[in-house]
Specification:
The chain has 538 residues and is an alpha+beta fold. The protein has four domains: 9-172, no CATH class; 177-339, Jelly Rolls (Sandwich); 362-399, no CATH class; 404-536, Sandwich (Hypothetical Protein Tm1070, Chain: A), CATH 2.60.290. 27% of the residues lie in helices and 34% in strands. The chain is built from nine helices and 30 strands. The chain has helices at residues 9-34, 40-56, 67-85, 90-102, 104-123, 152-165, 167-174, 363-376, 382-395, and strands at residues 182-188, 191-195, 200-201, 209-210, 213-217, 223-228, 233-246, 250-263, 272-275, 279-283, 286-292, 296-303, 305-310, 316-320, 323-328, 338-339, 347-348, 355-357, 359-362, 400-403, 405-408, 420-427, 436-437, 443-450, 454-463, 469-479, 487-494, 499-500, 513-521, 529-536. The strands form three sheets. It has a 16-stranded mixed β-sheet that branches. Strands 18, 21, 22, 23, 25, 26, 28 and 29 form an eight-stranded antiparallel β-sheet that branches. Strands 17, 19, 20, 24, 27 and 30 form a six-stranded antiparallel β-sheet that branches. Strand 25 (454-463) and strand 26 form a beta hairpin. The protein starts with 8 loop residues before the first helix and ends with a strand. Residues 1-7 and 119-180 have low confidence and may be disordered.
């Protein structure tokens, strides 16, 4: 954490104190996380991230207060972030999704909690101990989920109580969230808005005015375009979370997802700022595209210039028109600016690297389960099972499939209609330097599996060549299952089958650039899995 050769005596003393405190309270902190996460590996991952954040903020800790309470506050934020980013186990994810589906109060509490997370982390850098004294840590409730049923409601209402305690401090933040500073120009799919005072609405439409708050596009077919009074336009596409603080200086916090911006020239000294988990972008006047993930940010500049700062080490670079850069948490990765490569008309997914949404299931993991079962039943000895596993690993290390994950669609306008979708999203641009051009006569090939008959919606998110968001296109197919337990399918979707999801878009995606491929179904018992997606041009 500290470089021993460059640390001062004071830093050494602080580091030693942190190690003593963390070592002393790690068992209690681990029990706390196990009360939230049923799988040990998920708890370990969040614990590791909690340790990093606690050390980074340790200078805020007051020695005469409870370190465990302080660290549990940090851990709870990291747990919420793990849920939002989809990095927790599918069992944990689905358990919380089910609770959120059932309770509008829980959904509202989660949004308020995310707004509080924004306030603490990004607006004022307020220390976590500001709320630690007000959140009780009950040792009796620190029991792993694997051994008992956890009441999720108290977890979220304690978060809501923390927000009330911070009301005085939040008022300062809310003063910057002026109402009516942006106007929605286009919108599609489930999109929800939570204003700075915690009020949630999902009835947004063209002409709706928004101030500061949290904008959430919930599904791959969702998008919203809004405009500032100076003519600057922002488009948020796909599953994205954008926090807006629109006072004298425009501040956008893209927690995850995709953003495209056309920014008019800004006043001297007040550039538009775009913040992501790993980077800070200073925009004076330009056209840019941003893709934000928990561990990396990709910036493409098509007009003008943007100054980017990588948060992990403070490195900065200028990105001019026709160039791109990726800022990750890995300081070993070069922050070099790259010229945009020529387009290509062929694309083949690389799994699980291209996955934006979905749970990766390795064939080797499945084989391990089968072999363990065979050993347990006495069909194989441990030595035989291990030998079969090693032999398979030599031949096949990377094969597997991406399973659809359930996501909320927002409140249904039709009583009894489904409010949940199972979806998979792949990026065709995040880790690639050559944009994928959708050529005439191109075909989208999809290989996958379903367990039951399913109506599948396949979609393409596109961008203009050397420009911003171009639109979304969709095609539907029904996959039938015979008497088999699961049915594999391989379908070809010509680009002519994809229709524009808004009349403002071009009629066809041909000659546009592919940003994302996605697929979802509203059927609960489908168990949709995808093994391969590719775009080919005969």
């Amino acid at each position: 954490m500290n470089d021993p050769q460059s640390a001062t005596p004071a830093e050494d003393a602080s580091y030693e104190l942190f190690i003593r405190q963390f070592t002393l309270h790690e068992p209690g902190l681990r029990r706390f996380l196990r009360s939230l996460l049923p799988r040990q590996t998920d708890a370990d991952d969040v614990l590791q991230q909690t340790a990093i954040v606690c050390w980074r903020k340790f200078h805020h800790f007051q020695p005469d207060t409870s370190f465990l309470k302080w660290a549990c506050v940090v851990a709870r934020f990291e747990w919420v972030e793990a849920y939002v980013n989809g990095t927790i186990d599918s069992g944990s994810f689905e358990a919380l999704q089910a609770r959120l589906t059932e309770s509008q109060e829980l959904r509202a509490a989660l949004r308020r909690y995310l707004a509080l997370d924004h306030y603490l982390r990004e607006k004022t850098n307020a220390p976590a101990e500001a709320i630690a004294p007000w959140i009780e840590v009950d040792e009796a409730r620190m029991t792993p989920l694997a051994t008992r049923h956890v009441p999720w409601i108290p977890v979220f209402w304690s978060a809501a109580a923390a927000l009330v305690v911070l009301a005085v401090g939040v008022v300062v933040w809310l003063q910057d969230l002026k109402t009516g500073t942006t106007t929605i120009r286009a919108i599609n799919g489930p999109v929800q808005w939570t204003s700075g005072d915690g009020r949630m609405r999902d009835d947004l439409s063209v002409g709706t005015q928004l101030g500061g708050g949290v904008l959430e596009a919930l599904l791959p077919n969702s998008w919203v375009e809004f405009a500032f009074h100076d003519g600057s336009t922002i488009t948020v596409s796909g599953q994205s979370v954008l926090i807006m603080s629109t006072g004298k200086q425009k501040q956008l916090h893209l927690r995850q997802g995709s953003l495209s911006a056309k920014v008019t020239r800004q006043p001297v000294g007040s550039p538009l700022m775009v913040h992501t988990p790993t980077a800070e972008l200073q925009v004076l006047g330009t056209q840019l595209n941003v893709e934000a993930a928990p561990a990396s940010t990709k910036l493409v500049v098509n007009e003008g210039a943007v100054r980017l700062k990588r948060l992990v080490d403070g490195s900065t670079t200028e990105v001019h028109a026709g160039y791109e850069v990726t800022a990750s948490v890995d300081t070993q990765q070069d922050l070099g600016v790259r010229r945009l490569g020529p387009t290509q008309s062929l694309w083949k997914s690389t799994l699980p690297e291209d996955a934006v949404q979905g749970v990766w299931i390795s064939d080797m993991d499945e084989l391990a389960k089968q072999l363990k079962g065979a050993v347990k039943r006495g069909e194989l000895s441990e030595v035989e099972g291990l030998a079969k596993y090693k032999q398979a690993a030599i031949l096949n290390k990377t094969q597997g499939r991406l399973r659809a994950v359930p996501m909320l669609m927002g409140k249904s306008k039709v009583p009894g209609a489904p409010t949940k979708a199972h979806l998979i999203v792949l990026s065709a641009s995040r880790d690639r330097t050559h944009p994928v051009r959708l050529a005439p006569n191109a075909v989208v090939l999809v290989q996958g599996k379903v367990r039951s008959d399913a109506d599948l919606l396949f979609g393409l998110t596109t961008r203009h060549s050397q420009g911003g968001f171009a639109g979304k296109y969709a095609a539907t197919r029904r996959i039938g299952v015979s008497t088999e337990e699961t049915a594999s399918f391989r379908i070809e979707l010509p680009l002519e089958e994809f229709h524009a999801m808004d009349q403002a878009f071009a009629a066809s995606p041909i000659e546009l650039e592919l940003a994302e491929w996605w697929c979802f179904t509203k059927s609960d018992d489908t168990d949709l899995e995808i093994m391969q997606v590719e775009v080919s041009a005969p």
